Amino acid sequence: MQGARTSPGWIARLFRGMPRNVVALGVVSLFADAAGDMIAPLLPVFVAGLAGGGPLALGWIEGIADALSSLLKLLAGAWSDRLRKRKGLVVVGYVLAALARPLMALAGAAWHAGAVRALDRTGKGLRTSPRDALLAAAVEPARRGEAFGLHRAMDHAGAVIGPLVAVLLLSVFAFEVREVFWVATIPGALSVVVLLVWVRDEDAIEAPPRSAEPLKPLPSRAMLRFLGPLAVFTLGNASDLFIVLRASESLGVNGSILALPLLWLALHVVKLTSSLYAGRLTDRLGARPLILAGWVVYAAIYGGLAFAGDAWVVVVLSILYGTYHGLTEGAEKALVAELSLPEERGAAYGWYHLVLGVCALPASVAFGFLWQRFGSASSFLTSAALALVACALLLAARPNARARS
Fold it and tell me: How far is Cα of residue 261 from the mean position of the Cα atoms in its chain?
């Protein structure tokens, strides 16, 4: 099929013959995440310094933004199924995110930062499900775990580059935090250029849709057996920025402004390498064992962060936290592709992301509330406990993943 054409030269060798769209979307994510992660590790400290800032404000900002994003992921995924086209929505999503980067530099209060973060997550909501459906359709099922793992690795490579650039700007060129936010406009714009030039919409749908309805009322029973445990886990999975805030608390304000971008960089190096290895393991062992392993790692690290007293222990645990992402991100998306038909795949990814986002709002708000009221240990222990409950539920779910209602 046309979508299976591979890119020439060193890119094809790097991606082991992966299709053009897998390569191109990986490069798009690299640039987009470089832009976003120039800002992300500085955001907790930045919001804390604004009027109305603090852990609870950060929880509301991240929770509302993620919930809005995930609702749009469902609608955009189903809409792309109906249109039988994906690229247009992906382009709009990346453009909105690119526009949001410099606007953060103008924020004067916590609610301003929240509005800009919501715009950024709106872009993410519009692009993610159609993009995941493009990726799933571009590669044969036997290599989906590897394809999603490679895409996540490119995503995390951008998240390594972004903090590194931020550190250089802050330390070598003595930029202010707001000036770093302005510079983030450049890689954001490059992501849109690569998307427009390289990514193709051809063969985005593997079979014609069976219905003109834009959205099924419910996901299949097989999907529900996965989404239920995922919802429980996500209720304890607050924004990763709370990991950064925990490190900032341990390091102290004076030592954190440069250390936090370096910590974010190291975290994403671990995410990158673990995503590459976990993607191949997903194809060999199946998605569920990788998801379970990731959730157990998550519970262990969050439990450790609850009791860690020394700053170096907090930093090490925060970096190792990246293995949870590497184990689960590609595996979860590969499992969604396995549980869905090609003509419904955009909506299937939409349901997956909707569960993540709807649960992320109470997760982040509750995490911030517990932290502000009872201290950080209570937040991290609660999240660890919910992760273990989710593991038990996923183990108890019937393993006939291919069954559909």
Answer: 18
Structure tokens at 273: 């390498």
6 DSSP β-pair partners: 19
Cβ(322)–Cβ(292) below 8 Å: no
Q: Tokens 């993009």 map to which residue?
A: 131
Question: d(Cα 264, Cα 96) in Å, to the nearest integer?
Answer: 24
Identify any residues that bridge with 109 across adjacent strands, giving them in sequence order.
51
Tell me, what DSSP letter sits at residue 173?
S
pLDDT < 70: residue spans in the chain = 1-16, 202-218, 253-257, 398-405
Q: Where are the alpha helices (DSSP H) in 84-143?
A: 87-103, 110-138
Retrieve residue 106's tokens: 């103008």
Specify the pLDDT at position 231: 95
| pLDDT of the residue at 16 | 64
Q: What is the CATH number of domain 20-200+218-396?
A: 1.20.1250.20
CA 212, CA 83: separation in Å to the nearest integer? 10
Residues comprising the chain, all counted = 405
Cα-based distances in Å from 109 to 68, 145, 177 = 21, 42, 15
Alpha-carbon span 275 to 156, nearest angstrom: 9
CA dihedral 157, 365, 335, 292 (to 10 degrees): 90
Q: Count of CB atoms within 10 A of residue 29's CB?
A: 25
Tens digit of pLDDT for each residue in 46-79?
Answer: 887 787 877 778 878 877 887 788 788 888 888 8
Amino acid at 156: H
- The position carrying tokens 């955001």 is 43
Distant-in-sequence, close-in-space partners of 256: CB < 8 Å, separation ≥ 6: 45, 247, 248
